[in-house]
């Protein structure tokens, strides 16, 4: 069995360390040289691409060049860097060098040396959310630096019981992964489940949080996401206070959290910045839009193919006129338009922003108009498919939007084969699948099933904040009370008694 660099054997530490440095020197960005300008001389080793040159020349080299320093202990005392350690552990030396540490030896074949943290951090500045943009509310989004992301969450939850656990995931990448929860609020079973699944990941390279989300989900064969990803630090702070568990991954501008329910995928975090009337109306609109996106085209195909007697006479004449010159059956006509919409959507997403917008708008108009004039599709079906595609974009969570796009096709196929019976059959399979689905072992359809009446106040609709004093029952948190609902409902405008002021 071999290490990533060098061989694992029973030789002495000097020989093993020498073989490690020999392997590292095969990379052109690895620096290993004898610094003779020092009064006593020493050997320095580091990756040039991982080390911050300012730290090296400002905080390390000027101090190790002093004449009075003749031992590693003296070096450790005078270097103004907190993370400094003397070690002879070859495995630790290898890991630290690959993380941006500087390794210093007094002599070339010494079996111990000084490892000094001098890693460089190349990352972009905190910017505005792109996927979860909101007109009202904070405008900060996560970036690829996990240290910056932890800071964004910490400053929103400045409490000592916010726990952050580091786990290295990936045999080759050794990606820094952090599990976050609030001790005393989060259910320990949820924390242990998530911790066990993350530590049990056996994969070579982890480059994004989406890798981990797919590997730790309860059902890998389900098209429905069982964990929510977000780019908003304010949302992560809110769900941690609610009792959920979050994961941050170095190199990923998104966090994932759970356990979650299907209703959370249709609520945007911006809903909490609006009045409860408007937020509830928007949630109902999104749910209606999702239902319309899934069922509109299959119902049209099933009605035209098998159940045309259900169409009102005034509308039937319009449908007959629009389809009089269409050579394709309704099913193939609908599939043609659905695939065209998907092609335009994928082309617009993969092209540069300005070009993609032009392709989506111009392509949709040109292809739609041309297909109607050529007699390949009808005007009515073109309108229905376009509205269904537009409705699928109302889903706030991108992964759930992709799921909605996918499950339309089984409904369309079964509707074309068996009409309304096929649509009901597809809906039955969908409900049965959702009933079995869980998120970190918790019911996915909660609070719909099992019914949790107390959780309905922030599910399909959102009641005023004064009614949200309890944490969701589904999470089974250690502390179920967020605040006193009776105290929150009191009107504090006209306080006359001193006891009320003291309260």
Automatic annotation (TrEMBL):
Keyword Transferase (UniProt): no
TM annotation in the entry: 284-306, 380-399, 411-435
Superkingdom assignment: Bacteria
One Gene Ontology term from the biological process aspect of the record: spore germination
Gene Ontology CC terms: plasma membrane
Keywords carried by this UniProt record: Membrane, Transmembrane, Transmembrane helix
Listed Pfam families: GerA (PF03323)
UniProt similarity note: Belongs to the GerABKA family.
Protein name: Spore germination protein
Organism: Exobacillus caeni
